[in-house]
Write a structure and sequence with these properties.
Elements (H helix, E strand, L loop, with lengths): L15 E3 L2 E3 L6 E2 L1 H10 L17 E3 L3 E2 L6 E2 L4 E2 L3 E2 L6 E5 L3 E5 L4 E3 L1
Antiparallel strand pairs: 1-2, 2-3, 4-7, 4-11, 5-6, 8-9, 9-10
Organism: Paenibacillus lutrae
Protein name: Protein YjdM
Family: Belongs to the YjdM family.
Length: 113
């Protein structure tokens, strides 16, 4: 038995397939599950600590002293990071920091410069 997703409108569990669409018999909502997944992937927006949207190539500044895992070093507040790259995962910024090398940072600990 295949498991179909709940209705996005009323959260009903009684959805069924009708051709390429999924239909909810309780609220009569019809949707295309393929377009829903494509739409959700493109909505992934990464924001800094102040709520500014980050893009590849931006410059950011660290807003908190961060301990470097596996080292006794600390990234100091105000450290500038140039040319960031956004990636999937828990640490969503990939960058190179002068004096430290390649690092992965969480967007909640940086602000856009």
């Amino acid at each position: 038995m295949s498991t179909l997703p709940n209705c996005p409108e009323c959260n009903s569990t009684y959805t069924y397939e009708d051709g390429s669409l999924l239909v909810c018999p309780e609220c009569a909502h019809e949707w295309n599950p393929a377009s829903e997944t494509e739409h959700n992937d493109s909505d992934k927006v990464i924001k800094d600590a102040n709520g500014n949207i980050l893009n590849d190539g931006d410059s950011v500044s660290i807003i908190k002293d961060l301990k470097v895992k596996g080292s006794s070093s600390v990234l100091k507040i105000g450290t500038k990071v140039k040319n960031i790259r956004l990636v999937e995962g828990d640490h969503d910024i990939d960058c190179k920091i002068d004096g430290f090398g390649a690092m992965k940072l969480k967007s909640e600990f940086v602000k856009k410069v």
